[in-house]
Design a protein that fits this description.
The complex is a heterodimer of chains A (about 700) and B (about 70). With about 700 residues, chain A is mainly alpha-helical. Helix content of chain A is about 70%, strand content about 0%. Chain A contains 26 helices and two strands. Chain B has one domain. Classes of the chains: A mainly alpha (about 700), B mainly alpha (about 70).
Chain lengths: ~700, ~70
Amino acid sequence: MMRRISAALLAIVGAIAIGAVALQRHEPINALWILTAAVCVYLLGYRFYAAWIAARVLSVDAWRATPAERLNNGRDFVPTHRAIVFGHHFAAIAGPGPLVGPTLAAQFGYLPGTLWILVGAVLGGCVQDMIILLLSTRRDGRSLGQMARDELGPLGGFAALVGTLIIMIILSAVLGLVIVNVMKHSPWATSTVFATIPAALIVGLYLRLWRPGRVLEASLLGVALMLLALLAGGWIDHQPVLRPLFDYTAIALAGFVILYGFCAAILPVWLLLAPRDYLSTFLKLGTVALLAVAIVLTHPQIKMPAVTAFTDGTGPLFGGKVFPFVFITIACGAVSGFHALVASGTTPKLITNEADVRLIGYGSMALESFVAIMALIAATLLDPGVYFAINAGAGVVGATPAAAVQTISGWGFPVTVEQMQALASAMGERTLFARSGGAPSLAVGMASIFGSTFGRGLLALWYHFAIMFEAVFIMAVLDAGTRVGRFMLQDLLGHLWQPLGRTSWYPSVLLASALMVGAWGYFLYIGVIDPNGGVNILWPLFGISNQMLAGIALSVATGIIIKSGKLRYALVTLAPLAWLALVTTTAAWQKITSSDARIGLFAAADDLARKLALGALAPERAAVAPQLIFNQRLDGWLTMLLLAILWFVILDMARVCVRRLRGRPLRSSSEAPYQSSRLQGAAAQVRP
Amino acid sequence: MRRAAQWLRRRVACVWNGLRTASGDDAYERYRAHQAARQALEPPLSRRAFYEDTQRRKWSGVSRCC
């Protein structure tokens, strides 16, 4: 009875909050309405939809032994308490994506992003994560690529592998670009981010040489070192002699990031990658919790309108109408295909009881979606003029501050040079104009929230704390992505020449690492020299590739559901798949065919080529134009490839389903045979 | 009063153990306990070798997301 009453109360509060968000127009809305609506939607989705899927669609069986129990080896396969697996899984899936995507999508206003994050997560992303987690658990923790190969066929598996490799490259490039934009001509941010590298090395040595495996004490040391780095960065910023040593152009910083990525890929993991990840995880979880508390305490007003005029496709951050581009821009936080790779990796090997997949799969994604909502709040509480001044590239609004404020004020979002200068000096920066990529504006938003809660005098410190928080875990993702990409490349190269497939053979390590870093380094370099900021091209490409991966994951899930004779429940994965196929195809089609140079990649290349031929470009733009033209065409071809992979896997899934429905022979299920659980209390852990 | 202190001590111990497991701080102790429980014949890895091996395997697959 109590459960029904609490569910009814949740529904009522949620309905009121969503009503307030949807109906309040032309007047500021408080962020607490959005937060309340989000929490109620997640809890209701978890309580009813996830429980229904677990019981009916997946037939979750609490008495069935999981691989952690059957194959327990005390190392990879270890039955672990569900709260701890939840923490591990959340830390693995929560990256910079849900922070950057919603910040960029705020150009459409707060409403489109908020609605997509809520609906997309509850009906798509959480469902995908939970189902892939269970399917992998029932297959001894097999990866998404292996499941695609086993259940659909070798071609589907190969397409999944190529798709994954492409997304790794684009992800690393775009994240590299985000931190370059954070650090350019900012000695405080640069020196702090640089100092996190020796901090990670010290922690790495501590964990291996001095106190092997003592993670907690080493992490404590590392966090203290990073906070010291933050304070030292502020001190360096005021030293006329030291300051220039950390004042770099974007191109120099891109070179540094590329070199760093290469080193991280070839060095032993214990030295740089593992310690950096410990630090980033602690910082990430701590900051997210702090942000939630601070938003509740300050309950700020949202200043961005619900919907801006840029829904028509003329937005300054990236071109394209609200449909389909809000659904591409916000991937992580709503539906992220990348999660399917994590859900079919380490996590399934730790699950003690099948019934836990609801909390770990659905629950973790709901929490990540909540992080996306907080990022959206942090971006939309800024004055819209300030938001656009920080995020719009110089190529769109004008190269000088005066030109930028004139353009932005002309859109109806008043902002002045003095206002931007005062904000920059409060944040301890020289300028905040044209810092595209989402991270700096998010840091300004977070600093405002933290400053209002914990003391306004420390705004500059909070801003650089937020910058360090973003940079540290962006670099952790960069390290990990490059390394996994290296393994994938070695796997592919091994088919050409067997020794190249040996992951410990040093020439092969160097070659594969150089190829991987070279691939994302190229896109990063082009992004840096692009006067429009580069993010306007790279982020939509990343969104398309992430949604393509979600399409692959949902295709595998749909294929398995139909193969197991549950056609009537197939809509659970088929509906989000159909939606993602629609938005991804529409977005990719527009990127390929649109004649508007702000959207179409080939149109942009042709437009630039025409201007170059006519001599209509300024000398500095003319110098980089040939590279930009080549890159835009390359991006166009890459978009076509992503679209082809998506439809190839969807059609392969449809072929398998049609064969099943016609009673034709199929590949047998790769599910591990049923074995009863012997773990005491397994039955007692059944959850409704 | 003593009961409350005991309850508090138990809670703190529970949180501390959870934190150690979540961070991987007690991974080696759990590995040794597992080896002892199944009376494994092969000699156990040293603390350092176990740590290195765990990290190598963890970072061979997709462990971090966007």
